[in-house]
Amino acid sequence: MKSQILSRLIFLSATMFLALQIGYSQNIPKDSTVMVSVEMNDGNEFTGRILSQSPESIELKTETLGVITLPKRLIKTIQPIRTSQIVAGEYWYDNPYATRYFFGPNGYGLRKGEGYYQNAWIFFNQVSYGFTNNFTLGVGVIPAFLFAGAPTPIWITPKISVPIQKDKVNLGVGGLFATVLGEGNSSFGIAYGQLTFGPRDRNINFGLGYGYAGDSWANTPTVTISGMYRTSKKFALLTENYIFDTGDENLFLLSFGGRFIGRHVAIDAGLFIPAEGGDIIAIPWLGVNVPFGHPTYD
C-alpha cells in the first residue's frame, strides 16, 4: 500500500511537470508594436520589436543594437513583454516563485499553465502547477524511504486565489494536507487564508491558519505576516514570520533573507529565528526554485 501511494504521488508530480512541455510551439507576435524578449540557445537575450520574419529568421529592432537578424533555429524562446515588466526603462523578467515567500504562500496563485519545482535543503521537494488562473495544486515528498525504507512524509497543497483588486489585493484560501507513509494515523496539516496587498513582486501578506493532527484541530490560529520587495531585476528581499498561540504564551518564528532571481531559476537564502523564552538562535534556509510551463496572461 505504501509503495502504491508513493508511486501515485511521483506520477502526479511528473504529470504536472510535463503538462505543458509536450506539444509546445513557438508563437511569434505579428504586431510590430509589441515589445518582445528573444532568448537564444546560447543564453544571449535581446529585447525589441519584430519588424519582419521569414521561415528562417526574424528582424528585430532593438534600442541599443539597431535592427538585427536572428536565425529561428538558434532561438530558444520569444515572449511578449508586458508593460508592468518595464521598470525604469529596464526589462524585468517574471519572478519564477512569486506566489510564495521562503515556504509559506501568499494570496496570489500560479497562472494557468505555470508551474515550478522547489527543493529546500535537498530533502524537501514540491511541484506546483496552475490548472487555472484561480486554482493551484502542489504535491510534495521528503524521500525518507531512500534510507532503509524509513517513514516518508507526503502532502498536497491546493489553493484557490481570488483577485479582489487586480494586482493590488489578492485573497488565497487553501491548505497543506499531509501524512507519513509507514506510520498509522499520521495525518496532519493546516487550512489557511491569505490576504496580500501589492503586486506579485512588492507586497505584504497577512495570513491566518488552523493546524490539525489526526482528528484534533488547534484551538487557536497561527498568524503569519510576510513580505516581498523586489529591489532590482535579479534580487528581492524576503521576510516570513509566524506567531503561534500555545495558550500559555506566544511563540514567534521570524525570518529574513533574499531571493536571487534568474530567468530559469530562483535561489532563496535566509535565516529563520525561533524566539522563545529569551533564547534566540538562527537556522539557515536555502532553497532552489525552477519554473516550467507556459503561463497564460490576462
Topology, please?
Elements: H1 2-18, E1 35-40, E2 45-53, E3 57-62, E4 66-71, E5 75-80, E6 86-87, E7 90-91, E8 114-120, E9 124-130, E10 135-141, E11 152-165, E12 169-181, E13 188-197, E14 202-213, E15 216-217, E16 222-232, E17 235-245, E18 250-261, E19 266-276, E20 279-280, E21 283-293
Antiparallel strand pairs: 1-2, 1-5, 2-3, 3-4, 6-7, 8-9, 8-21, 9-10, 10-11, 11-12, 12-13, 13-14, 14-15, 14-16, 16-17, 17-18, 18-19, 19-20, 19-21
Number of domains: 2
**What structural category do the secondary elements indicate?**
mainly beta
Instruction: Indicate the CATH class of the largest domain.
Output: Mainly Beta
Assess the beta-strand content as a share of residues.
Answer: over 45%
The tally of strands reads 21
Order of helices and strands: HEEEEEEEEEEEEEEEEEEEEE
CATH architecture of the largest domain: Beta Barrel
In a nutshell, what does this entry contain?
This protein has one helix spanning 2-18, and strands spanning 35-40, 45-53, 57-62, 66-71, 75-80, 86-87, 90-91, 114-120, 124-130, 135-141, 152-165, 169-181, 188-197, 202-213, 216-217, 222-232, 235-245, 250-261, 266-276, 279-280, 283-293.
Keywords:
twelve-stranded antiparallel β-barrel, 298 residues, mainly beta, SH3 type barrels, Porin, 2 domains, five-stranded antiparallel beta sheet
